[in-house]
Specification:
Elements lengths: L2 E4 L9 H11 L4 E6 L11 H7 L7 E6 L7 H7 L3 E5 L6 H10 L3 E6 L17 E5 L14 H14 L5 E5 L7 H5 L5 E4 L1 H4 L4 H7 L3
Helix pairs in contact: 1-8, 2-3
The structure holds D-xylitol-5-phosphate (DX5) and zinc ion.
Amino acid sequence: MVQIAPSILSADFSNLKDEILKLEKGGADYIHLDVMDGIFVPNITFGAPVIKNIRKFTDIPFDVHLMIDKPERYIKDFVDAGADIITVHQEATTHLHRTIEMIKSFGVKAGVALNPATPLETLEYVLDYVDLVLIMTVNPGFGGQKFIDSTRRKIKKIKSMVTERDLNVLIEADGGIKLDNFREIVDCGLDIIVVGSGIFEADDIVERVRMFKY
Ligand code: DX5
Ligand code: ZN
């Protein structure tokens, strides 16, 4: 069964604790935390201190998606805040292999995210070292955008790369995933789906999380 990582980007931040407890009740496998710096992406969200506070009221693993320039500067802060997976963008760090090794040295899982226009070939020489590949299915920066169709092929291709090499790498997709398209996207070869607005637009959030279990 696919794992679900609800993104709190579309949550009610004045009521974050309740929102997260609803996700937990619905059976969320991870909480997906979108960190944006206004430089790598045209939006600013939150950083390690907010994540550290959320950590106090849930034990669900934290899937931290860093949409920040030169993420290697802040890895330790996010580890200390309670991250279980830290994903950096290939486009945001010059020494990708070094950054992956840094994340793993703290005992957390290391992920690499690719923007929709970034080819999978950039992972050729690091795939053996990562725990997770995050395929962006929208251009990062905002919730509620439309799924980009060409990324379906990309998911299928990374799935076959991982299978061919017999690697233990999780494949995750993020952006534009809704009730009406998630099954066919999952079938392209995903282990984890990130869903933001597709959950928080619902009147009953607990039930909506359950509906993504497939
Ligand atoms: C986009 C973020 C996503 C976003 C997904 O930059 O990385 O995690 O919250 O939101 P939806 O599901 O609304 O596309
Ligand atoms: Zn994300």
